[in-house]
Amino acid sequence: AGVFTHDPGFTSTSSCESAITFIDGDKGELLHRGYPIDQLAEKSHYLEVCYLLLYGELPTAAELEHFETTITRHTMIHEQMHNFFRGFRRDAHPMATMVGVVGAMSAFYHDSTDITDERQREIASHRLIAKMPTIAAMAYKYSIGQPFVYPRNDLDYASNFLRMCFAVPAEEYVVDPVLSRAMDRIFTLHADHEQNASTSTVRLASSSGANPFACIAAGIACLWGPAHGGANQACLEMLKEIGTVDRIPEYIARAKDKNDPFRLMGFGHRVYKNFDPRAKVMKQSADEVLDLLGVENNPLLQVAKELERIALQDDYFAEKKLFPNVDFYSGIILEAMGFPTSMFTPIFAVSRTVGWISQWKEQLADPAMKIGRPRQLYMGATLRDYVEIEDR
Ligand code: CMC
């Protein structure tokens, strides 16, 4: 008792036992329930991966159909929740809106907040996975002053999301299958990533017995930061700021300068000390989408490709084992699809919801679960007597 290790940033602390996701950072390997991410991105699709993460096995055809029907049934949000969106300023960041709206779900869905009831936990997970795209799309529509578009349950998860973001009542909207596939891949590649900052936040919030909607709202808040989910927005803004290939060396030099806080966004990872396996698939997707949209000569992509090439040849990045991560290419795809940068992190939040939920469920089922309560290394004043205000 009283003896503990000091580990800022938890670089060498395991917080739980988990059977969901495995990462070998040196090899650049990511497995969900044992299946490699590149196989899942290639052969599977987002809702099937959701099932795998939640229940541990790939579904049979009947199980998948049942799961998809269940999720589809929950895609609408309570009509009264529309008022929440209208309470925000139009220029609010969609992540700010989502933290509020998702947290407020516990005020609406009382029949799924009792965490001791397995059925309620199940309903809460389905509701969150189903409603997150609707909430993210509504936050976007509200920010651009367009009417909300209700979900359509005959569409797959990714196509439905694209339609809710880009359709307007005055016109027919047809989702291009290449864009739908690329959207699905972005969801799939971000679905889970073991004990990252937002997942650990969800687990810590849940360790007190908080309800699932409150826990996921906490995860969204944590994801927002530029060192985590906010990196995709920050990366695209950086590529735009660099603008042309000839300015790359200046930014590489800044990233290497110890006295300059600038970092190459979309580079480096706490766990991967090799290529992020998700970045490889994302790069291929970026090529497909830009090809389809006829923007393969997109200046941002040229800057991104050249930046990657130069950085990978640079000793600084080699020594520190800094490689492109998943967010290096996702922003280019989303921008080409027509999303503003402020929607990049909300899209990450939609994708990661299943990871948060799977980890939350696993934690609640763990008999060893206790409240998360780190200690500290106290560095403040030692014991001293109170000083009256007139004597200070
Ligand atoms: N550009 C330049 N230098 C870097 C970078 C970078 N992107 N990333 C790390 N370094 C340097 C850093 O300055 C440090 O140098 P030194 O040892 O001389 O002090 C060394 O590499 C180790 O960095 P660290 O900050 O101690 O490593 P960390 O594990 O705490 O940070 C990270 C990981 C992802 C926060 C960091 O690499 C970073 O800030 N990257 C840019 C932001 C980014 O792309 N984030 C997305 C991560 S993937 C998606 C997600 O998980 O949400």
TrEMBL record:
Keywords: Acyltransferase, Transferase, Tricarboxylic acid cycle. Pathway: Carbohydrate metabolism; tricarboxylic acid cycle; isocitrate from oxaloacetate: step 1/2. GO terms for biological process: tricarboxylic acid cycle. This is Citrate synthase. One of its GO terms (cellular component) is cytoplasm. It catalyses: oxaloacetate + acetyl-CoA + H2O = citrate + CoA + H(+). One of its GO terms (molecular function) is citrate synthase activity. Belongs to the citrate synthase family. Pfam families: Citrate_synt. The active site is at residues 269, 327. InterPro entries: Citrate_synth-like_lrg_a-sub, Citrate_synth-like_sm_a-sub, Citrate_synthase, Citrate_synthase_AS, Citrate_synthase_bac-typ, Citrate_synthase_sf, Citrate_synthase_typ-I.
